[in-house]
Amino acid sequence: MIATASAAGAVLLIDLHTHTYPKSDDSFMSVDELLDSARTLGLDGVCLTEHDDFWPADDAADLARRHGILVFPGAEINTDAGHVLVFGLRRYRFGMHKPTFLRAEADSLRAVMIAAHPYRRRYLSEPGQDPAARADMLARALADPHLRLFDAVESHNGRGAADENRFAADLRQQLRLPGTAGSDAHRLHQLGAAATLFHRPIASMDELIAEIRAGRMEPVDLTTPATLPPVSVR
User: Fold this and answer.
1) Is the pTM of this model over 0.70?
2) 171 has which bridge partners?
3) Count of structural domains within the chain
């Protein structure tokens, strides 16, 4: 079980990146299985980020009541700049595959955008073992103007390899953006690998967005005991 503090305290662990079937057709778990497992693991909240699809806010609220855990509806949008986690949008619109269009939509609704697993398309593990090749890949990534459109970077993905996550963390640092983490779970055994640590109570989507925009959070590798927050009194 993950060590975490309760929603009444000063620490919240929220998995910002998960997928369930059938809304995400590459997932192998239902939303009820996901939330039951998340609560058992000790997570305080879960964001449902299906591929190019959104859970209705009323459905998410009902899931939260039934499972006794925070549930926030977001989405993972496939764009020309890679995959983007969004919070605060309500439905998919044609054109969201264009990063600037998605940014305009987010701004119109005061939503936030997070670059998901940004090492994809930008980093290759084998040449990345060579410092010069890695530095070149990082420079090429930083030259992409689309990366300037984000509010935060997923600097730790639960399904990413260690070197991939290090690249994402270096990218985040160079961009001077806040970092987040999520399991990117498609199967139950992937849940609990990573989450985002928030230092203020969060009870609504507006509060989640405000904390992300303000950068009041940090990515946590939940597979490393030294990084875990204090034990819950829940």
Assistant:
1) yes
2) none
3) 1
